[in-house]
Specification:
The structure holds two protein chains of two kinds. Chain A is α/β, with parallel strands linked by helices. Chain A is 36% helix and 15% strand. Chain A has one domain. In chain A, strand 2, helix 3 and strand 3 form a beta-alpha-beta unit. By secondary structure, chain B is an alpha/beta fold. In chain B, the strands form two sheets. In chain B, strands 1, 3, 5, 6 and 7 form a five-stranded mixed beta sheet that branches. Chain B has a two-stranded antiparallel ribbon with strand order 2-4.
Chain lengths: 91, 179
């Protein structure tokens, strides 16, 4: 996905990535990313948590405006309420 | 009366704020357990940058998910997909209940209940209605599921074709949500 963002950006269209895999994002380095330390699959938070979904979306939009150099990564301050681990899911 | 200074349990449990998960290691283990070769992640030290040239309120926005999300009227994605360059265009006016998710590499049980926690199309529409975003493109996108080992095809074929489709729709900003 980060590679796709880089290709799109090189084609002249701005991109912003909403990532739950910080180490993956740092390696592939999309042009702009916000990192959300939530489980993969919950990039915008919990089901029906409209305020959080909106906050994270707004943070991504804000970065798309404020970023001045390629590869910017912003760590968002939100915390998931319970411990979580890497869990490949069900199909 | 003396103040009680003994430790008190917090009114709410402290939020869990661990170090970020190492997906590079976790995925390598998982792929290995499935008999896949190790995945050599691309490592970049610089990234391209195309600044927005107009305010958000004048921008046309779309969104891409790689989370195996498809319309119920379409075949499901292959949950174990490798090297799958399938890319679905999703009409921007679909309902948030019109989706199915097939991807064995993350827990999508929450997104099954509310697509907006992984692909927030309703929140985007609200921001358009409020004028925060200028407009939505006519198409959202789902594809580029993980485990694409033939990355040169992304760089030379499927990626540029996707960029051309975005340009055709007049997109100023792509929000990408990997999973």
């Amino acid at each position: 996905m980060g590679l796709v963002c880089r290709v799109v950006e090189e084609a002249g269209i701005a991109t912003v990535c909403v990532s739950t895999g910080r180490d993956l994002t740092v390696q592939v380095l999309p042009p702009r990313s916000v990192f959300v330390n939530f489980p993969m699959g919950n990039a915008f938070g919990a089901p029906f948590d409209l305020a959080m979904q909106r906050n994270i979306l707004r943070a991504a939009l804000d970065l798309s405006v404020s970023a001045v150099r390629g590869g910017e990564l912003v760590d968002l301050p939100y915390c998931w309420p319970v411990p979580f681990a890497f869990e490949p899911g069900r199909s | 009366m003396q103040a009680d200074t003994s430790p008190q349990p917090p009114a709410h449990p402290a939020p869990h704020s661990p170090a970020p998960i190492s997906y590079v290691e976790g995925l390598a283990r998982h792929y290995g357990s499935m008999g896949h070769p190790p995945y050599a992640w691309t490592i970049h030290h610089t990234a391209p940058m195309t600044p927005l040239t107009k305010p958000l309120g004048a921008c046309r926005v779309t969104m891409l998910t790689s989370g195996g999300i498809s319309l119920c009227t379409m075949p499901g994605f292959d949950p174990m997909a490798r090297n799958d360059h399938r890319l679905d265009a999703i009409p921007a006016d679909v309902g948030s209940g019109d989706f199915q998710i097939h991807d064995a590499y993350y827990d999508h049980s929450d997104a099954d209940r509310d697509i907006n926690c992984q692909f927030p199309i309703d929140r985007l529409r609200e921001l358009v209605a409020e004028g925060v975003i200028g407009s939505l493109a006519p198409r959202f996108w789902s594809g580029f599921m993980g485990r694409i080992y033939n990355r040169s095809k992304v760089l030379t074929e499927s990626g540029p074709a996707f960029a051309a489709a975005l340009a055709e729709d007049g997109v100023d900003l792509l929000i990408a949500v990997p999973a």
